[in-house]
């Protein structure tokens, strides 16, 4: 019947709907399981990524080298690690918004900009002996290695730097020491070769001024048994200063004290030194000054002095160099003095020999004249005897 058919269709529909609902429910549960698994996988990936980031951050922060990250476009600092913070004197909070202009000295900023340009073009660059500026204003010499990179859509420059101040200073000290040794060897060779004294002193003074990169200097020689001083050689000194220095005597000023005591004298700033007695030196803006004696057999024979018109302090190595030069040239001055004495004695002896020869020649002439007079006298005596004999006979 119709009712039975409807009931049958309704039951069938209910059964089909129930089966479809159960299938849908199973599919939903399966999707929920897959979604949950996907969420768990995403969480694991996120945790893994965070672990990687944390590990990289820890690696950067605890690295032995100073590391940094800069924005390529505006030059602002993005991050510093602990080593960089300690080296520059900044904390993490105070290091934000720093730029190249803050971290590098003004005279080296153009070198940093050229480095950035090279990184942009070539992907990496390095630069050495550049001056960094700490937070407290002090500076140090460092070198940098950088590369170009990207963080999301942000172009960055990252790299490392280190403090090479001590190494650079040691290298400069070694170069200066080598220059000093070379200068001493050249002077020793000239002294050994026996070049004439004025030429040797001129070359020595020129080499000292060139080696120490100073304004000028001069050499005083003692005369009249050390009672008078003569400015024998000078470099880069105005004529009015030369005239005033030429009036100096032993005991006057720093140079005169060197002559008097046989010990070096030094001044960091002659403009404020009460021992300075020369107004011309003050007007010529002399500041750093050093004078050492030429000594041979505990006798002062001269003084070598150098000066600089800029702010400078002569180091111990500089003083030792000039003293070593004084010790080398002292015997040369002594030998020159002995040679001059020998030459003077030779001239005296030669003059004495010539006078003796003239005396001998005069003596020979006198003897010859005496002999002639004696013969003439004998002839007169014979004539007298003959005359008397003839007169007696007559």
Question: Any key phrases for this structure?
Answer:
single chain, about 400 residues, alpha+beta, five-stranded antiparallel sheet, 10 helices
Characterise this structure.
- The protein is built from ten helices and ten strands.
- The chain is of the alpha+beta class and 394 residues long.
- The strands form two sheets. A five-stranded antiparallel β-sheet has the order 2-1-5-4-3, sandwiched between helices. A five-stranded antiparallel β-sheet has the order 7-6-10-9-8, with helices on both faces.
- A hairpin with a 5-residue loop joins strand 1 and strand 2.
- Helix content is 58%, strand content 21%.
SSE series: HEEHHHEEEHHEEHHEHEEH
Quick one: overall form?
rod-shaped
The chain-level structural class is: alpha+beta
Oligomer: single chain
DSSP strand content: 15-25%
Please give the radius of gyration in angstroms: 50 Å
Helical residues, percent: 55-70%
Total E-strand runs: 10
Number of helices: 10
As laid out across the biggest beta sheet, the strand order is 2-1-5-4-3
Largest sheet: 5 strands, antiparallel
Low-confidence stretches: none
What would the average pLDDT be, to the nearest integer? Answer: 79
User: What is the CA–CA distance across the termini?
Assistant: 238 Å
Helix-strand layout with pairing:
Blueprint: H1 2-61, E1 66-71, E2 77-80, H2 82-88, H3 100-103, H4 109-122, E3 124-133, E4 139-151, E5 154-163, H5 165-193, H6 197-212, E6 216-223, E7 228-235, H7 239-245, H8 253-261, E8 265-267, H9 279-283, E9 288-296, E10 299-308, H10 316-393
């Amino acid at each position: 019947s119709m009712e039975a058919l409807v009931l049958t269709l309704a039951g069938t529909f209910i059964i089909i709907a129930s089966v479809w609902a159960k299938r849908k429910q199973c599919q939903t549960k399966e999707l929920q399981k897959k979604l949950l698994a996907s969420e768990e996988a995403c969480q694991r990936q996120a945790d893994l990524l965070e672990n990687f980031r944390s590990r990289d951050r820890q690696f950067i922060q605890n690295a032995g080298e100073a590391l940094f990250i800069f924005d390529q476009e505006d030059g602002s600092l993005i991050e510093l690690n602990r080593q960089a913070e300690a080296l520059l004197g900044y904390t993490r909070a105070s290091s934000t918004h720093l730029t190249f202009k803050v971290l590098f000295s003004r005279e080296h900023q153009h070198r940093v900009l050229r480095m950035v340009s090279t990184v942009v073009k070539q992907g990496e660059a390095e630069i050495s002996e550049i001056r960094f500026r700490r937070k407290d204003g002090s500076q140090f010499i460092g070198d940098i290695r950088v590369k170009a990179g990207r963080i999301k859509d942000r172009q960055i420059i990252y790299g490392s730097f280190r403090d090479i101040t001590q190494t650079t200073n040691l290298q400069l000290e070694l170069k200066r020491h080598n220059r000093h040794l070379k200068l001493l060897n050249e002077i020793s060779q000239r002294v050994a070769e026996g070049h004439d004294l004025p030429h040797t002193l001129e070359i020595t003074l020129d080499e000292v001024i060139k080696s120490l990169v100073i304004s000028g200097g001069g050499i005083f020689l003692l005369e009249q048994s050390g009672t008078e001083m003569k400015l024998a050689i000078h470099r880069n000194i105005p004529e009015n200063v030369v005239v005033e220095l030429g009036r100096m005597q032993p005991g006057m000023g720093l140079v005169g004290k060197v002559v008097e005591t046989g010990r070096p004298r030094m001044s960091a700033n002659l403009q404020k030194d009460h021992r300075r007695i020369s107004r011309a030196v003050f007007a010529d803006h002399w500041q750093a000054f050093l004078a050492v004696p030429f000594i041979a057999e505990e006798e002062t024979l001269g003084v070598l002095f150098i000066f600089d018109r800029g702010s400078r302090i002569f180091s111990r190595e500089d003083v030792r160099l000039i003293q070593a030069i004084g010790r080398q040239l002292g015997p040369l001055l002594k030998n020159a003095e002995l040679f001059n004495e020998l030459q003077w004695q030779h001239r005296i002896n030669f003059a004495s020999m010539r006078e003796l020869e003239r005396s001998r020649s005069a003596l020979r002439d006198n003897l010859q004249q005496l002999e002639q007079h004696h013969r003439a006298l004998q002839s007169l005596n014979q004539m007298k005897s003959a005359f008397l004999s003839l007169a007696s006979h007559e």
